[in-house]
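Re: the 652-residue chain
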Amino acid sequence: MSRWLVAVCAVMLGASCGDCSGEKPAGSEGGPCYGNNTCDDGLACLSALCVKRNPTTDASQLPDAAVADAAQPNDAARSDTAHTADSALPDSSARDVAAATDVATASDTASVGDSATATDGASGIDAAPNYAGRIGSACSDDTECLGGDAFCLYGLCTRSCGAGGTISNCNAASVSNPNGPFGGVYSCFALGAGYISICWPNGTGATCSGDCSASGRADETCIANKCQVAVSGTIARTNMYCHRDSDCAAGESCILFDNLELDNIRVEGICLQRGANRQPAYGSCSIDDQCGSGFCDQSSCVPLCLVDNDCRSGDRCVATGHPSNWYDEYRTQYVGLCSAWPGSGSACSANAACNAGEDCETFETLINNDTQPALAGACRTLGFPSGAAVGAACTADAQCKSGSCLVNPITSLGYCTGPCVGGEADCSGGTSCRLVSVDGRNPATTTDDLRADFCVRTSVGASCFVDVGCVSCSDDGECNPGQGVTCVGAPTGICRDGFGRCADPCRSCTVGGASNGGCPSSTVCTEQQIGSTLTVSYCQDASSSCVRADLPQSLIYADGMCGDVEYPLGGGGPLVQQDLCYYWGRTTGINSQDVFMCGQACEAGVTACPAITTGSGEIATGCRNTYGFGVSVAPGELRAPTQCAPANAYQP
């Protein structure tokens, strides 16, 4: 799939990019969680994303570990680490732990102690202790862990500790496993104000009397007769925060955890010993849970990063966003991931600033103390140097130098596109440099959109891009209060549901109420806790997704994708009459999709409309009423009622 289309596919309803499958199916590994915060069997959910709970347990099934300076992936294939944004976090986040009020009771703790040993009735000799379910023991789900507050996180059992927690000593003989797969000694990991801390591995736990050289980890210190990681002297480490592997001890990797620093939008990681079953950065892998970082891309383990120097030579640290919760409508937190970036990697503001065989491409980063996402440019090797230039006809990405072929599903015609950070000078072959949204952020506004320049066609019949926006309102009557969608911020408000969603609001219901709680047939009314005391009831369908409330859908159009002059970045009308990005209709078949195409405004002096060229002939156009136009428009609203469009285009 073309590089820049990985980002654009999320907002592009009106064009075919060959395979807009960057978003993995709900509930699948690497995909978003179901609406009830669950995933498919064997997977766990945290921050709305599904990962495997338990690591691979059979080391013989792992591929040979790759050295840190392993060969780069095939440059022509152009590894796109962007898809790894969809994979990440396990089920029980710090917030989940902090919000839990049903912690273990004394009887829970006693039951753990009861399993400390097993007795051989025939000989009367104690057998080996049964550590299953204790802190540090291997697990695949919460039910395998002992204690009312226990849960399974990244393949090991843990419990709450410290102030507000249940366990006073994470290494107590009755609750811990001294032979855990990720170490044998544990610290109470202090998560910070507002959170309940958790017990977490802090070293091998090998018995010692002053020297830990035999443990195989030179960075361990003998503390309380156990080899473990010290923060200084003989004080055990209790802070396992990390943003990169270098923040961790030898043999550990930084694996994604949660955003615990509420003054920014960067997600923190947690240091975890890899053990025998997970590979270090750039080690060979076939699935995410074979990597210490939890990310496998192009058969290589992808490490977390803070800056480019945290990655191997030829990689770049790219900020990758995802929602904080399944019900969030846009990316609210970001993690740095090392992404293959072949070429010089020099900062650039135009293709002319790069070496021969490179172009200037944008990537996402965080600025202002990690409080704001932004785009930057860097020189990168062309995807297919022997391919065609921007603007040339194509049917597949590999036919283009840039590695990006944009195909119109209606006309079956495509052309090579690419970035134009340097403006019109970077475009050719009848394309123009236009801003396209690559991270729409909050659907209630366009002012926070991240928009990158790309060479696109703007003529009649060219594909144009749209995204779903929010419906403005002056009172509840303009929304759907009967289904839980009210006007928030009236009289100049936005229609929102109980979660705060506005682009695709969920339909509310009454759990246990008459008529299926107010939900459609074949759906169920369920509750979701979204705060310490607040819950929202919503209709959930068979795929565990929320049912959309009956509310007209608003659309946001990519500014300037068609014809004349684009809209100003801050919003408002065009400087001159803008040609229309109109709704053509929906294609049929398995891969059906909504299609939006460029028209031409029937301005004064337009006496004849141009025909649309297709792969099998031409389609005549004429001045017709069409659907949709502008920065934001509700269904039926006509900002420019007449455009050059074919007779079979959708008309309101």
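The mean pLDDT is 78.
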